[in-house]
């Protein structure tokens, strides 16, 4: 028997360890994102008072780290352990989960193209809702400031949108020193809150973030489309590799 060689089906070592190695990286990235998210929540006292999650009127950027990290962790775990242990259940779960994500991305892209006006209205509502909560959360404040500085914009469609915030609105009852002003990230010169009544063109950005985002998207459409196509191809490639490995494993087991 020692002189005979096995001629039956075999599991491809290249595919197996490629899936394993790629998902180890993915797994650790997921753990890192989750760690950052949990650390941020701990710093804000959310972990000691879970009910405070619902207190923020706007969007908490920490959710991005937690959701993305959670998805990466689950995918990385299933792909890594599934390939290493030749576990067909985990590999099939990896393929299905990746397929669902791909389908959701494709659906979101189609809907965004078909319902552009509705998406624009929702973006306007989302930004204004977060303008109201600007001072409620430091992470949200940093995200808005970064967005306004990067796209050189102010508010959803203009600086007047900041009237929605209790600290910046121009009502007579507002006793804030920032009354009738805008955040420093709207300013074109010194990083300080400035009044918006005098010479807006010189003092602050007058364009809103929604039209600036549309302009940026049009200017970088090729790059954005290339990134999304690249991600989609990687997902399809991952699904094909996982299914191929499952077929190899099942073929080997059937030959026993």
UniProtKB/TrEMBL annotation:
Q: Which residues cross the membrane?
A: 20-41, 61-84, 96-115, 223-246
Sorted alphabetically, the keyword list is: Membrane, Transmembrane, Transmembrane helix
Q: Does the keyword DNA damage apply?
A: no
Reading the lineage from the top rank, the first entry is Eukaryota
A family per Pfam: Tetraspanin
Primary localisation category: membrane
The way it spans or sits in the membrane comes to:
Multi-pass membrane protein
Entry annotated with the keyword Cytoplasm: no
**Compartments in which it is found:** Membrane
**Annotated SUPFAM superfamilies:** Tetraspanin (SSF48652)
User: Which parts form a coiled-coil structure per UniProt?
Assistant: none
Family in the record? Belongs to the tetraspanin (TM4SF) family.
Provide the protein name. Answer: Tetraspanin
Source organism of this protein record: Rattus norvegicus
């Amino acid at each position: 028997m020692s002189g005979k060689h096995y001629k039956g089906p075999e599991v491809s070592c290249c595919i197996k360890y490629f899936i394993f190695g790629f998902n180890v990286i993915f797994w650790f990235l997921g753990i890192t994102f989750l760690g950052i998210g949990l650390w941020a929540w701990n710093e804000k006292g959310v972990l000691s008072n879970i009910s405070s999650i619902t207190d923020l009127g706007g969007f908490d950027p920490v959710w991005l780290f937690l959701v993305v990290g959670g998805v990466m962790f689950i995918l990385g775990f299933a792909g890594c352990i599934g390939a290493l242990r030749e576990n067909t259940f985990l590999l099939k779960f990896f393929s299905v989960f990746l397929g669902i994500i791909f389908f959701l991305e494709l659906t979101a892209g189609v809907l965004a193209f078909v319902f552009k006006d509705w998406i624009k209205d929702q973006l306007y509502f989302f930004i204004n809702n977060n303008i109201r909560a600007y001072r409620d959360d430091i992470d949200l404040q940093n995200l808005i400031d970064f967005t306004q500085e990067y796209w050189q914009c102010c508010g959803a469609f203009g600086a007047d949108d900041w009237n929605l915030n209790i600290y910046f609105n121009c009502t007579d009852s507002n006793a804030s020193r920032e009354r009738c002003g805008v955040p420093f990230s709207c300013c074109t010169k010194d990083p300080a809150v400035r009044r918006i009544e005098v010479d807006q063109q010189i003092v602050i950005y007058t364009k809103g973030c929604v039209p600036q985002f549309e302009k940026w998207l049009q200017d970088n459409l090729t790059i954005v489309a290339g990134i999304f196509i690249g991600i989609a191809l990687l997902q399809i490639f991952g699904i094909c590799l996982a299914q191929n490995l499952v077929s190899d494993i099942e073929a080997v087991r059937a030959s026993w």
